[in-house]
Amino acid sequence: MEIDLSKRLEIKINNERPVGLEALSLSLLAFNHQFHKFVESETNKETDVGSELLIKEVRSGSIVVELVSQAAPIVPLLWEGGTLAQWSKVVEDTCKWLLGKTNTKPKNVSKQDLQEWNKFVEPVAKDNGSQMNINVSDSGKVINQFIINSAEANAMQNRIGHMIEDLDTPEDNIHRRKVMYWYQTKFDPNSDTGNKAIIDDLSKTGLKVIFENNAVKEEMLHVDPKFGKPWQELAYVVDVEVQTVRGIPKMYKVLNITLSIPLTLMRSRPLTNSSNRPPLRCSFCAFPLRSHKTINSVPAA
To answer: Is pLDDT of 222 > 60?
Structure first.
């Protein structure tokens, strides 16, 4: 595909101190990868648009890197002013968002994206008094230009750090009156490790279980003798806090137990615990407990 030399994007770093080669290289690589993602997300497979930035020239003085891209097809008309003009607007809007100057969040921002924007401004952020000038020209005429100074680059990196922290922090969700049954236990009243349970409404996978406090745990360990079953062979209707990481359930914290349900052991297939027990089934209807989705599906005693 033809390279469009008439449209150029210039990144100029007015540095106060020498810029490390690694920091500069990672900055440009991150910028190129974000450009690649931008082009891929805005076009379909049938549209032949190059998604790689090419170095046209590196000039002396301050660090000046002049980039060009492959020419976009005229039909369909993708972006007025060309790929680089549109991309520079995306970069500017993203920087404004990271500086808190706009609430308009870019599309589909991932942790990796945030890390790459962090790398992009790194050469300026670590050099007080420096600044990065980004401008796009068409046949020698500047059509878009903006500046990121050292203070702004540091502010962007600080906000990015908080955003990544938030992504890595478990989200807490409380669910009421859910049927929980044991998937694996150590049968150890003095430890929570090794205990996993399933709540079909929330996840088909056995997840680690902890308790809000010892009173809740004691309530589970000392069930009514009328059931004639140990606590590990009962199901429970619970209020539970689901801790997730990026939307994926990772752990249950049992807050309250509202009902215990007696079960009958059936020999259909092994339960994955140390005693190789078969799956637990409801003594009222003989269906596997995992078929009980909510408290409403459990027949009254």
So the answer is: yes
